[in-house]
Every structure is written in C-alpha cells, then in structure tokens.
Design brief:
With 228 residues, the protein is an all-alpha fold. It has 13 helices and no strands. Helix 9 runs antiparallel to helix 10 (155-168) and helix 10 (155-168) packs across helix 12. It has helices at 6-20, 25-37, 44-51, 57-68, 72-82, 88-101, 112-115, 120-133, 139-147, 155-168, 173-180, 185-199, 205-218.
C-alpha cells in the first residue's frame, strides 16, 4: 500500500469539506458517510456547522451519525456551544446529536428554556435528549417540566411529548394527575391520552386521543356499562 502523504490527505480533506456543502444532496450524503466511515477529529467543526444549515433530513441524520463516531470529549463541548445559537436548527440538531451520543455530562445543558423553547422542533429535540440523558433522581422533576406543556402544538408535537413522558415510566403519574384536573379541555385530553399510552404502550396515539376527547366531553363510562 502506498502511504498517503500530508499533501494528499489535505487534498482529500478539502474535497470532502467541499462535498459537504455541495448543491446536490446525494453528494452531501456521501461526503457525510465518508467522514463518518473514517472518523477524523479535524472534521468536527465542519460537521457541526453543516448540521445548523443542512436542509435535507437524511443528510442531517448522516451528519449526526458521523459525529457519534468521534470521541465524545471532542464533540460534546462543540455541540453544547450550539445550544446557545440563535438559529433554531442549530439548537435542534445539536440536541438530537447529544441524545445519540448519550454522554451524561450534557444533562446540565438541557435547560428549562430549551425544554420550553418557542420553536417546536427545538422543544421536541430537547424532550428526547432530556429523557435520554436524565440522571437517576431527576426523573420526577423532568416529568413535571414536560407535563407543564401538555396540550401544546399539533398532533406531531403532542405525540412527541407523550412519548417522552411515557419513556420516563410511572414517575409521570403525579404530574399527569395534576393535568387531568386542568380547566383546559385540550390539556385534559392530552393528559388522558398520555395516561392511556402509559398503561398500554401498544395503543395507537390517535385512538388514545379520540378516547381522551370522549372522556373529557362526556366523562368516563360507569363501571359495568356496556354499549348497546
């Protein structure tokens, strides 16, 4: 095998860096795959920067994969810095990548402001990251923060929040009970749907929501009542 000298490597690195920003998404995807296949810490800044602006979902996912292939002590500090970005996608993708890396040192950076971020995609990423990183003893506090947002957003946002809560397990019950008594019917319905998913993880979210809306509108069926 002919050794690669520094000039050849620099040339290859330059081509990969250029390919990460190419106009064709397939080219960008292949470049991210190549970087992840041969992890090189010198690419971390380029990968993180690209995550903030990459428009294609599949390319973003490959960028995240490439970052997970690098040492956490290199990637995590760089990703934590992105959480302060004014660009919503930068915050969202950094949170997503941190959840995949799974380094508990990132937990303190999952702040209340991120969990309640006005941008739905950032908030959803923060919920998933928080559930992945929450240390033992902090689950109930996280459950309360998440439950405070029951009723937020459209179906997809509500499904993400319910999944995050259910992933925490039975510790969410006190927070759910509080929201089941809410004056807001949307909050009550979302809390009921989440409670059903906690009891029956195989239940479909849409059917859980439909049942929850019926309960909120009509009240629970009396015990022993059967349909005509």
């Amino acid at each position: 095998m002919v050794p690669i000298n520094s000039t050849q490597k620099n040339s290859q690195d330059t081509r990969l860096l250029n390919a990460l920003g190419a106009g064709n998404s397939s080219t960008r995807l292949q470049a991210a795959l190549a970087v992840g296949t041969r992890p090189d810490p010198s690419f971390v800044d380029a990968l993180v920067a690209r995550c903030a602006i990459e428009p294609d979902f599949f390319v973003r996912d490959m960028l995240t994969w490439a970052l997970t292939r690098l040492p956490a002590e290199i990637t995590v500090p760089r990703l934590l810095a992105e959480l302060r970005s004014e660009r919503a996608q930068a915050r969202s993708q950094a949170l997503h990548t941190l959840s995949k890396i799974g380094d508990g040192k990132a937990w303190p950076a999952i702040t209340r402001s991120l969990l309640h971020d006005a941008d739905d995609e950032v908030a959803r990423s923060a919920w998933r990251a928080a559930v992945a990183l929450v240390p033992t003893g902090e689950q109930e506090g996280l459950a309360a923060e998440l439950a405070a947002q029951l009723g937020r957003g459209d179906r997809n946002v509500q499904l993400s929040l319910s999944r995050a809560l259910v992933a925490l397990g039975d510790v969410i019950e006190p927070a759910l009970q509080t929201k089941l008594a809410s004056d807001d019917p949307t909050v009550r319905a979302h809390a009921h749907a989440t409670e059903r998913l906690l009891r029956d993880p195989d239940a479909g979210f849409d059917s859980a929501v439909d049942e929850a809306k019926r309960i909120v509108a009509l009240g629970p069926e009396p015990v022993g009542e059967t349909a005509c």
